[in-house]
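To: structure subgroup
Subject: Chain for Friday's discussion

All,

I'm putting the inputs and outputs inline so they're searchable in the archive.
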Amino acid sequence: MTRQALSRKIINTCLEMTRLGLNQGTAGNVSVRYKEGMLITPTGMPYELMTEESIVYVDNNGVYEKGKLPSSEWLFHLAVYQARLDCNAVIHNHAKHCAAVSILEKDIPAIHYMIAVSGTDHIPCVPYATFGTSQLAQYVKEGIKESKAILLSHHGLIAAETNLDKALWLAHEVEILAEWYMKLLATNQPIPLLSKANMVAVLEKFKSYGLRIEEK
Protein backbone atom coordinates (compact mmCIF):
# COMPACT_ATOMS: atom_id res chain seq x y z
CA MET A 1 0.00 0.00 0.00
CA THR A 2 1.09 3.58 -0.61
CA ARG A 3 1.92 5.90 2.28
CA GLN A 4 -1.32 7.82 1.70
CA ALA A 5 -3.40 4.62 1.74
CA LEU A 6 -1.69 3.38 4.90
CA SER A 7 -2.18 6.76 6.57
CA ARG A 8 -5.90 6.69 5.72
CA LYS A 9 -6.08 3.12 7.06
CA ILE A 10 -4.50 4.27 10.35
CA ILE A 11 -7.08 7.07 10.70
CA ASN A 12 -9.98 4.75 9.89
CA THR A 13 -8.68 2.26 12.46
CA CYS A 14 -8.54 5.00 15.11
CA LEU A 15 -12.12 6.03 14.35
CA GLU A 16 -13.33 2.42 14.45
CA MET A 17 -11.50 1.85 17.73
CA THR A 18 -13.48 4.73 19.24
CA ARG A 19 -16.73 3.49 17.70
CA LEU A 20 -16.16 0.08 19.32
CA GLY A 21 -15.65 1.74 22.70
CA LEU A 22 -12.00 0.69 22.91
CA ASN A 23 -10.59 4.13 23.57
CA GLN A 24 -11.37 7.58 24.92
CA GLY A 25 -10.27 10.96 23.55
CA THR A 26 -6.70 11.06 22.27
CA ALA A 27 -5.36 8.42 24.69
CA GLY A 28 -4.60 5.63 22.19
CA ASN A 29 -2.18 5.43 19.28
CA VAL A 30 -1.84 3.34 16.13
CA SER A 31 1.07 2.54 13.83
CA VAL A 32 2.09 0.41 10.86
CA ARG A 33 5.49 -0.78 9.75
CA TYR A 34 6.62 1.30 6.75
CA LYS A 35 9.91 1.27 4.83
CA GLU A 36 12.80 1.56 7.32
CA GLY A 37 10.54 2.51 10.23
CA MET A 38 6.86 3.15 10.81
CA LEU A 39 3.93 5.48 10.28
CA ILE A 40 2.25 6.53 13.54
CA THR A 41 -0.49 8.82 14.79
CA PRO A 42 0.58 12.29 15.96
CA THR A 43 0.53 13.33 19.59
CA GLY A 44 -2.50 15.03 21.09
CA MET A 45 -4.66 15.23 17.96
CA PRO A 46 -8.32 14.10 18.02
CA TYR A 47 -8.85 11.27 15.56
CA GLU A 48 -11.65 13.05 13.72
CA LEU A 49 -9.30 15.96 12.90
CA MET A 50 -6.50 13.82 11.47
CA THR A 51 -5.68 13.86 7.78
CA GLU A 52 -3.25 11.68 5.86
CA GLU A 53 -0.70 14.50 6.21
CA SER A 54 -1.00 14.35 10.01
CA ILE A 55 0.46 10.83 10.21
CA VAL A 56 4.15 10.86 11.16
CA TYR A 57 6.99 8.77 9.73
CA VAL A 58 9.54 7.64 12.33
CA ASP A 59 12.60 5.69 11.21
CA ASN A 60 14.11 2.76 13.06
CA ASN A 61 16.58 5.10 14.80
CA GLY A 62 13.76 7.20 16.23
CA VAL A 63 14.24 10.12 13.87
CA TYR A 64 10.93 11.65 12.80
CA GLU A 65 9.80 14.15 10.22
CA LYS A 66 10.61 17.80 10.79
CA GLY A 67 7.58 19.83 11.86
CA LYS A 68 5.63 16.81 13.09
CA LEU A 69 5.38 15.21 16.54
CA PRO A 70 4.62 11.48 16.79
CA SER A 71 2.63 9.90 19.59
CA SER A 72 4.37 10.12 22.95
CA GLU A 73 4.43 6.29 22.89
CA TRP A 74 6.44 5.97 19.67
CA LEU A 75 9.30 4.28 21.53
CA PHE A 76 7.29 1.19 22.45
CA HIS A 77 5.81 0.94 18.95
CA LEU A 78 9.36 0.67 17.56
CA ALA A 79 10.16 -1.85 20.31
CA VAL A 80 7.28 -4.07 19.15
CA TYR A 81 8.51 -4.04 15.55
CA GLN A 82 12.03 -4.89 16.69
CA ALA A 83 10.79 -7.79 18.81
CA ARG A 84 8.12 -9.18 16.45
CA LEU A 85 9.17 -9.39 12.81
CA ASP A 86 5.84 -11.16 12.15
CA CYS A 87 3.86 -8.05 13.14
CA ASN A 88 3.29 -5.02 10.91
CA ALA A 89 0.67 -3.12 12.90
CA VAL A 90 0.38 -2.00 16.51
CA ILE A 91 -2.65 -0.68 18.39
CA HIS A 92 -2.48 0.82 21.87
CA ASN A 93 -5.54 1.91 23.81
CA HIS A 94 -6.98 2.48 27.28
CA ALA A 95 -9.94 0.13 26.82
CA LYS A 96 -11.96 0.18 30.05
CA HIS A 97 -11.74 -3.45 31.10
CA CYS A 98 -8.17 -3.99 29.92
CA ALA A 99 -7.14 -0.89 31.88
CA ALA A 100 -9.03 -2.16 34.94
CA VAL A 101 -7.23 -5.52 34.86
CA SER A 102 -3.91 -3.71 34.35
CA ILE A 103 -4.56 -1.62 37.48
CA LEU A 104 -4.86 -4.88 39.40
CA GLU A 105 -1.45 -5.82 37.90
CA LYS A 106 -2.87 -9.16 36.78
CA ASP A 107 -2.33 -11.34 33.71
CA ILE A 108 -5.54 -12.62 32.15
CA PRO A 109 -5.31 -16.40 32.63
CA ALA A 110 -6.90 -19.19 30.59
CA ILE A 111 -10.51 -18.42 31.54
CA HIS A 112 -11.70 -19.16 27.98
CA TYR A 113 -10.17 -20.76 24.91
CA MET A 114 -10.18 -17.39 23.07
CA ILE A 115 -7.18 -16.42 25.20
CA ALA A 116 -5.29 -18.22 22.40
CA VAL A 117 -5.78 -15.19 20.12
CA SER A 118 -2.69 -13.85 21.86
CA GLY A 119 -0.58 -16.73 20.57
CA THR A 120 -0.11 -18.11 24.08
CA ASP A 121 -2.16 -19.36 27.04
CA HIS A 122 -2.58 -16.03 28.89
CA ILE A 123 -2.48 -12.28 28.35
CA PRO A 124 0.61 -11.01 30.22
CA CYS A 125 0.69 -7.79 32.23
CA VAL A 126 4.10 -6.09 32.06
CA PRO A 127 5.43 -3.91 34.89
CA TYR A 128 4.60 -0.23 35.23
CA ALA A 129 6.84 2.52 33.89
CA THR A 130 6.09 6.15 33.01
CA PHE A 131 4.49 6.54 29.58
CA GLY A 132 6.82 7.44 26.74
CA THR A 133 9.96 6.22 28.50
CA SER A 134 12.66 3.82 27.35
CA GLN A 135 11.98 1.71 30.44
CA LEU A 136 8.37 1.14 29.35
CA ALA A 137 9.57 0.35 25.83
CA GLN A 138 11.91 -2.28 27.27
CA TYR A 139 9.10 -3.89 29.28
CA VAL A 140 6.95 -3.90 26.14
CA LYS A 141 9.73 -5.42 24.06
CA GLU A 142 10.07 -8.33 26.46
CA GLY A 143 6.34 -8.86 26.94
CA ILE A 144 5.41 -8.75 23.27
CA LYS A 145 7.90 -11.55 22.52
CA GLU A 146 5.69 -13.79 24.64
CA SER A 147 2.27 -12.64 23.44
CA LYS A 148 0.81 -10.53 20.61
CA ALA A 149 -1.43 -8.86 23.19
CA ILE A 150 -0.12 -7.48 26.47
CA LEU A 151 -1.44 -5.33 29.30
CA LEU A 152 0.65 -2.42 30.55
CA SER A 153 0.38 -2.15 34.33
CA HIS A 154 -1.81 0.81 35.41
CA HIS A 155 -2.11 1.83 31.78
CA GLY A 156 -3.85 -0.19 29.05
CA LEU A 157 -3.42 -2.64 26.16
CA ILE A 158 -1.08 -3.24 23.24
CA ALA A 159 -2.14 -5.51 20.38
CA ALA A 160 0.16 -6.35 17.47
CA GLU A 161 -0.65 -8.30 14.33
CA THR A 162 0.21 -8.72 10.67
CA ASN A 163 -2.06 -5.84 9.62
CA LEU A 164 -4.37 -3.22 11.12
CA ASP A 165 -7.58 -5.16 10.62
CA LYS A 166 -6.17 -8.10 12.55
CA ALA A 167 -4.67 -5.88 15.25
CA LEU A 168 -8.03 -4.19 15.82
CA TRP A 169 -9.77 -7.58 15.90
CA LEU A 170 -7.24 -8.77 18.47
CA ALA A 171 -7.66 -5.65 20.62
CA HIS A 172 -11.44 -6.08 20.59
CA GLU A 173 -11.23 -9.77 21.53
CA VAL A 174 -8.90 -9.04 24.43
CA GLU A 175 -11.18 -6.30 25.75
CA ILE A 176 -14.05 -8.81 25.82
CA LEU A 177 -11.84 -11.31 27.68
CA ALA A 178 -10.87 -8.58 30.17
CA GLU A 179 -14.54 -7.75 30.74
CA TRP A 180 -15.34 -11.40 31.46
CA TYR A 181 -12.36 -11.63 33.80
CA MET A 182 -13.40 -8.54 35.79
CA LYS A 183 -16.92 -9.97 36.18
CA LEU A 184 -15.51 -13.29 37.35
CA LEU A 185 -13.22 -11.59 39.87
CA ALA A 186 -16.23 -9.69 41.23
CA THR A 187 -17.90 -12.98 42.24
CA ASN A 188 -15.13 -13.61 44.81
CA GLN A 189 -15.31 -17.27 43.82
CA PRO A 190 -12.42 -19.49 42.65
CA ILE A 191 -12.12 -19.20 38.87
CA PRO A 192 -11.79 -22.52 37.00
CA LEU A 193 -9.10 -22.31 34.33
CA LEU A 194 -8.45 -24.38 31.25
CA SER A 195 -5.51 -26.73 31.69
CA LYS A 196 -2.16 -26.41 29.94
CA ALA A 197 -3.11 -29.43 27.82
CA ASN A 198 -6.41 -27.81 26.84
CA MET A 199 -4.62 -24.65 25.76
CA VAL A 200 -1.93 -26.52 23.83
CA ALA A 201 -4.71 -28.18 21.80
CA VAL A 202 -6.44 -24.84 21.19
CA LEU A 203 -3.21 -23.07 20.22
CA GLU A 204 -2.57 -25.78 17.63
CA LYS A 205 -6.04 -25.25 16.14
CA PHE A 206 -5.53 -21.46 16.19
CA LYS A 207 -2.68 -21.81 13.70
CA SER A 208 -5.43 -21.86 11.07
CA TYR A 209 -8.02 -19.76 12.95
CA GLY A 210 -8.68 -16.05 13.20
CA LEU A 211 -9.61 -13.04 11.12
CA ARG A 212 -8.78 -13.79 7.48
CA ILE A 213 -8.05 -10.40 5.98
CA GLU A 214 -4.87 -9.79 4.03
CA GLU A 215 -3.87 -6.30 2.89
CA LYS A 216 -3.14 -5.89 -0.79
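Points worth raising on Friday:
The first helix runs from residue 3 to 19.
The chain has six helices and seven strands.

D.
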